[in-house]
Amino acid sequence: MKENLEIKAERHSGLEQTEDKRTKNHLLFCEHPHVYTLGKSGFMENLLVSDSRLKELDVSFYKTNRGGDITYHGPRQIVAYPILDLELFFTDLGKYMRCLEEVIIRTLAFYGIKGDRLPGSTGVWLEPNVPGKARKICAMGVRCSRWVTMHGLAFNINTDLRYFDYIVPCGITDKSVTSLQKELGRIVDEEEVKIIVKKEFGNVFNAEIIPEFVKEPV
């Protein structure tokens, strides 16, 4: 991210760029320990437990510079962080969010689940317009600087949904949260889901996904 921003600063300063000074795009996957994160437009009241209770639950809490309100990250949840130079794709942050949603909607379709959007709320939902049944399966929150993106999405796969009981997810009080496991009624292969997400990301963004393997330190 920092390297991309420095290159972008050079680009806008009018300095000539060599081939090795082009911005690089990445799609990073990770899995966090139990943690609640609060976006810059979020409200502390949406964290429903005290510091002492957080320690009992072994959950960390952080304020972040992404958009959105409070959410949960934890084991068996796929977190994806696209680091893209949108000037190489399109300079439209709204379109970027809709494209991220489309990636997850297409992934859900592989499992026979109809993902959808909820006007006014980012992320991917199931039955968003059915009172009492609307539930979010993928939360999203991003930041963009000089058209370089950071942060991303959290897709509930085999996630322990009890951790959402201690917050008001995304600040929305009248809708619930779900997971792929809950909807399918079985444990889901998370590596398989990542493969599908990568494929659909490439399709939606018209990009070739080239695997990079990071060698573990000895």
Give a concise summary.
The chain is of the alpha+beta class and 218 residues long. It has helices at residues 2-13, 51-57, 93-110, 180-184, 190-205; strands at 26-30, 35-38, 60-63, 70-73, 77-83, 116-118, 121-126, 135-145, 148-156, 176-177. A hairpin with an 8-residue loop joins strand 7 (121-126) and strand 8.
Q: How would you explain this protein's 3D organization?
A:
There is one protein chain. This protein is of the alpha+beta class and about 220 residues long. The chain contains 5 helices and 10 strands. Helix 3 (about 95-110) crosses helix 5 (about 190-205). The mean pLDDT is about 90.
Give the SSE map:
Elements: H1 2-13, E1 26-30, E2 35-38, H2 51-57, E3 60-63, E4 70-73, E5 77-83, H3 93-110, E6 116-118, E7 121-126, E8 135-145, E9 148-156, E10 176-177, H4 180-184, H5 190-205
Parallel strand pairs: 2-3, 8-10
Antiparallel strand pairs: 1-5, 2-4, 5-9, 6-7, 7-8, 8-9
Helix pairs in contact: 3-5
- The helix/strand series, from N terminus to C terminus, equals HEEHEEEHEEEEEHH
* Molecular shape: globular
Number of helices: 5
Quaternary assembly: single chain
- What is the CA–CA distance across the termini? 26 Å
Query: Helix/strand/pairing class, anyone?
Result: alpha+beta
Poorly predicted residue ranges? none
As a whole number of angstroms, the C-alpha radius of gyration is 18 Å
Notable features of this structure?
27% helix, 218 residues, single chain, alpha+beta, seven-stranded mixed sheet
